[in-house]
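Researcher: Here's my situation. A collaborator sent me these components and asked whether they could plausibly form a single complex. I don't have experimental data yet, so a predicted model of the whole assembly would be a useful starting point for our discussion.
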Amino acid sequence: MHLHYIRIMKTLSELKDELELSPVQTMLLANTGSMTVLLEALFGPVSVQTESQKILDADSETARVLEISEGETVNRRIVRLVAGERVLVHATSVAPLSRLNPEFKEDIMKRDIPIGRIMEAHRIESRREILGYDWQTAKARFAEIFSKPAGSIVLKRNYNIIHNKQPLINILEVFPYEMAK
Amino acid sequence: MHLHYIRIMKTLSELKDELELSPVQTMLLANTGSMTVLLEALFGPVSVQTESQKILDADSETARVLEISEGETVNRRIVRLVAGERVLVHATSVAPLSRLNPEFKEDIMKRDIPIGRIMEAHRIESRREILGYDWQTAKARFAEIFSKPAGSIVLKRNYNIIHNKQPLINILEVFPYEMAK
């Protein structure tokens, strides 16, 4: 089973060659801090709507990216980051259960809290390693999620949050090009 | 001796009440990741020009912010972050010598490297805690540094980089309002 879409390996400058990016779009993509903090600075209070949350076995691709063994259990959470009625970002996070401490696990599995805010609450020290970027024309489902016409552009980025020298979470973010044009 | 100007304790929303801030200015101020990464995304390659670098004894205010004892030795580095000919940011960093490992100390004391890039090179896990914001009309020296008319506005923020649950570095950044209007 394919847990995650991680084959997005363009660099930011390759993306810039293919698409015209505004300063705000560029900053959202390049950011190595909390995405929630930047979204709240731009759009006001951000909340999480959880679309699904499941315990799954890592496929080979997920295992590679998270530096775990194939078949190890991971928590996959799919959420929407929302400001008011507006869906800003669609985010899929995958985390090896063995690396989550009990409080973090509780927050990520049972509560609608953005990951940046969970990390802040637990004062977790980390660094973000960006794995790649991509864009595509939105399929019907994404167009509907973002209330955009089908075929409009979405931007994507994938990164690992590293903690204790190991990937703690892999995150795939998708957001509409128009959000920050 | 007063090492540092840390009495800037406005919140971002207080700053927004006093000044009209663009989305890009707001993001630069709110950012909890590497400042260098965002500046490079906006302006291209960023280099450091070191204005001064000294070992000093912490005064009471510096000791309070860094959670050390008064009189402990700190490294104070004052730099300009520059893209091409343009000075983007004036930054003062103060770090307790006892908390810098030998490689970090070497990079910060002897080389012109932005702190974000030093942290990345040494894969240092951290979190950034923003202490406050402020703005002022630039005095003659700052106006000259940024090649702006005297009296033009500069934005300021102060934050700690926390590593191993202790402040590793306190950074005061000053940049011209016009940089990202």
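Model: Some features of this prediction you could bring to your collaborator: The beta strands of chain A are 47-57, 73-83, 86-96, 127-137, 153-163, 166-176. The first strand of chain A starts at residue 47 and ends at 57.
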